[in-house]
């Protein structure tokens, strides 16, 4: 009858401007010996802008990016691997001097349609309107004049460009691009009413904790009301910046998932293939009378006729896929896997020999160490599963062509150096905790003391000024106290980079180490860190994760990695250990220093960024949220203190270490959270409005 169609989607670990690598990863999918074609797929879709890589940013302005994208497209058109299968690839295209984010759909060396993106992502981490223009001519197509390099392959002078759908011999397909699925007026609604049965979506969607279910629900709901087959492809991995794209390629039929890809994996190429029955779509739609009434009035889409079928004439015995239950990771699993995969991509692509982490024995640096340990777990697992690319990368990183990573602790010893930097203000407890954790994860551990360097710096200051600063515990002012804390923190940063550059040299091993930071998202928001201290590093895998989530992650590591050293770390109060000990014990704690708890900080962060609340709006929301525990006057005091500290310390965000993006209230100044860094810290008008409300209440 010709109704069972086999389609393929994928998650690709593309890299911005890596045209050679991107071409190689694309060709492995529909190739003659590739997975999709070998399983009988007749349609293949890949991630958004997969030819050049999604994260090209201002490189999109360059004509080179357009030129090289067309050069890769020519290679794809010519490849035997792309014959007899409809291929849908993403790249930027310049049409009438306007740059568009496009899908190029082709079959047997002929371009069928260039479909530009209609709704551009332009919030949070996304700036697509900076580089692209949305296609605003609904249901219209124009002639696109192909460049000569493509004409020579396709023997076509022009092809359709615009908002159209494909009509094959047996069905009708319509494309969406990433953000269009999230838009309130998604194209799949009208396309479905106009008889489109297969919807495709090429995405560049990044990981955020607890976000995967939203994407899955959107895909399934796209066909639950209207019927149809929905095929989602997504980018995966770190393509050159703070984001980790988390795959999750999927295929849905009539509101139910029938194929699920992995969310976190070290595989550069993952292909998902499913066979579906078109009659299931038709019978599902037949009894939805409201849908059929709406369909009778819909404005039709231009159809590009394709002399090709996605099904075979004799397919009665072809088995089709059944619905499955999607398995979501817990937030603790997401922290264990997402940043670990991001670190591996960064390590292998930066061509460094490993990581160095200042390990203080506290929760944050310990969580960072656990993420590196999880990365080693993932590498060993991938090698056991036969991933030749991961094995080759591991051998290059450790500079041993015969090496096979089999045990995470042993790999950790080769690629991970931890360093406890003691001072006279450090306790023996934190030193012991750091040492024990290093032993359990297998890192190469260094103990050193920074007092000589601290005294040398303070000595230079005293020699020049004739004054010697003192800690407040010894009668000094708060200004002296803070300066003496900061000099310790900054010396640790200098030493971290010194040891990162030369530690392997002292051991007779080539290469250098990437320095890892370990400031969490809440401390960055409050500014509870020294500018240019150990928070200043090459990258930070926990910089987008809250303290609350990190504590839960530590508990997860105790249970799943049997890292018993973490128990004492969990039970100890967080402390910077920069002020003098009292009777040999730590007297300084983070929450007392900050004047707020980490739990409160998470709430402030979500209200400030996600709820878009200024001081007055935050006060109004919190007097209800905290009415059982705080008076309005106490709430006002807390809100004012937070905004004063936030305003005073916002300048630190301009130099924040590039961090894995995991929370939507991240204060990252680079592009996610664009704010001034010089504030009037009195907030006089805003605080006066709060005071008036307190008086009224």
UniProtKB/TrEMBL annotation:
Domain CN hydrolase: 5-278
GO molecular function: ATP binding; glutaminase activity; NAD+ synthase (glutamine-hydrolyzing) activity
Enzyme class: ligase
Presence of the UniProt keyword Nucleotide-binding in the record: yes
Keyword set includes Ligase: yes
Family: In the C-terminal section; belongs to the NAD synthetase family.
Example of a GO biological process term: 'de novo' NAD+ biosynthetic process from L-tryptophan
Superkingdom classification of source: Eukaryota
Biochemical pathway: Cofactor biosynthesis; NAD(+) biosynthesis; NAD(+) from deamido-NAD(+) (L-Gln route): step 1/1
Subunit and partners: Homohexamer.
Descriptive protein name: Glutamine-dependent NAD(+) synthetase
Gene, per the UniProt record: Nadsyn1
Annotated InterPro entries: C-N_Hydrolase, C-N_Hydrolase_sf, Gln-dep_NAD_synthase, NAD/GMP_synthase, NAD_synthase, Rossmann-like_a/b/a_fold
Record's GO cellular component terms: cytosol
Organism taxonomic ancestry: Eukaryota, Metazoa, Chordata, Craniata, Vertebrata
């Amino acid at each position: 009858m010709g109704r069972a169609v086999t389609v393929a989607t994928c998650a690709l670990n593309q890299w911005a401007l890596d045209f050679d690598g991107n071409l190689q990863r694309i060709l492995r999918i529909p190739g003659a010996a590739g997975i999709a074609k070998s399983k009988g797929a007749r349609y293949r879709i890949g991630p958004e802008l997969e030819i050049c890589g999604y994260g090209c940013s201002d490189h999109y302005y360059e004509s080179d990016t357009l030129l090289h994208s067309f050069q890769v497209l020519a290679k794809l058109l010519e490849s035997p691997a792309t014959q007899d299968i409809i291929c849908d690839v993403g790249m930027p295209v310049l049409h009438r001097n306007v740059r568009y984010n496009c899908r190029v759909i082709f079959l047997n060396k002929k371009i069928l349609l260039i479909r530009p993106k209609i709704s551009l992502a332009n919030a949070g981490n996304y700036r697509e309107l900076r580089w692209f223009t949305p296609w605003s001519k609904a249901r219209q197509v124009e002639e696109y004049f192909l460049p000569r390099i493509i004409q020579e392959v396709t023997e076509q002078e022009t092809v359709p460009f615009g908002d159209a759908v494909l009509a094959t011999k047996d069905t009708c397909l319509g494309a969406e691009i990433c953000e269009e699925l999230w838009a309130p007026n998604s194209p799949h609604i009208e396309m479905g009413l106009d008889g489109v049965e297969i919807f495709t979506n090429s995405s560049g969607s990044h990981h955020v904790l607890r976000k995967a279910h939203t994407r899955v629900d959107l895909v399934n709901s796209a066909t639950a009301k209207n019927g149809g087959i929905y095929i989602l492809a997504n980018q995966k991995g770190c393509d050159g910046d703070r984001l980790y794209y988390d795959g999750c390629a999927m295929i849905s039929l009539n509101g139910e998932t029938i194929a699920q890809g992995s969310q976190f994996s070290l595989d550069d190429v993952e292909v998902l293939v499913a066979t579906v029955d078109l009659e299931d779509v038709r019978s599902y739609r037949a009894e939805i009378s409201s849908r059929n009434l709406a369909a009778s009035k819909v404005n039709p889409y231009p159809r590009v006729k394709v002399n090709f079928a996605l099904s075979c004439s004799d397919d009665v015995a072809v088995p089709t896929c059944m619905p499955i239950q999607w398995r979501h990771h817990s937030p603790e699993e997401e922290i264990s896997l997402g940043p670990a995969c991001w670190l591996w991509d960064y390590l292998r692509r930066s061509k460094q020999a490993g990581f160095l982490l200042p390990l203080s024995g506290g929760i944050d640096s310990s969580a960072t160490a656990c993420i590196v340990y999880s990365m080693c777990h993932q590498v060993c697992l991938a090698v056991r599963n036969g991933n030749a690319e991961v094995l080759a990368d591991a051998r290059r990183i450790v500079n041993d062509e015969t090496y096979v990573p089999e045990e995470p602790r042993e790999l950790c010893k080769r690629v991970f150096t931890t360093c406890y930097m003691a001072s006279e203000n450090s306790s023996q407890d934190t030193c012991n905790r750091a040492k024990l954790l290093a032993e359990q994860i297998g890192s190469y551990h260094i103990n050193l003391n920074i007092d000589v360097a601290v005294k040398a710096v303070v000595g230079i200051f005293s020699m020049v000024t004739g004054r010697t600063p003192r800690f407040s515990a010894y009668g000094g002012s708060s200004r002296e106290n803070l300066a003496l804390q900061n000099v310790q923190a900054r010396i640790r940063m200098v030493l971290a980079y010194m040891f990162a550059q030369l530690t392997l040299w002292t051991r007779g091993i080539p290469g250098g180490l990437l320095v890892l930071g370990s400031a969490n998202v809440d401390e960055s928001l409050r500014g509870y860190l020294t500018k240019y201290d150990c928070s200043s590093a090459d990258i930070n895998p926990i910089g987008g994760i809250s303290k609350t989530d990190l504590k839960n992650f530590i508990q997860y590591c105790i249970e799943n990695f049997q890292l018993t050293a973490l128990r004492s770390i969990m039970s100890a109060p967080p402390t910077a250990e920069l002020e003098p000990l009292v009777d040999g014990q730590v007297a300084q704690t983070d929450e007392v220093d900050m004047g707020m708890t980490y739990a409160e900080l998470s709430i402030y962060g979500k209200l400030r960024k996600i709820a878009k609340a200024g001081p007055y709006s935050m006060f109004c929301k919190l007097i209800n949220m905290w009415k059982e525990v705080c008076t309005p006057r106490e709430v006002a005091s807390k809100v004012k203190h937070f905004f004063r500290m936030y305003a005073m310390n916002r300048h630190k965000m301009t130099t924040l270490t590039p961090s894995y993006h995991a929370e939507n209230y991240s204060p990252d100044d680079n592009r996610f959270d664009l704010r001034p860094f010089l504030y009037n810290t009195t907030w006089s008008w805003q605080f006066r409005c709060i005071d008036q409300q307190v008086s009224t209440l």
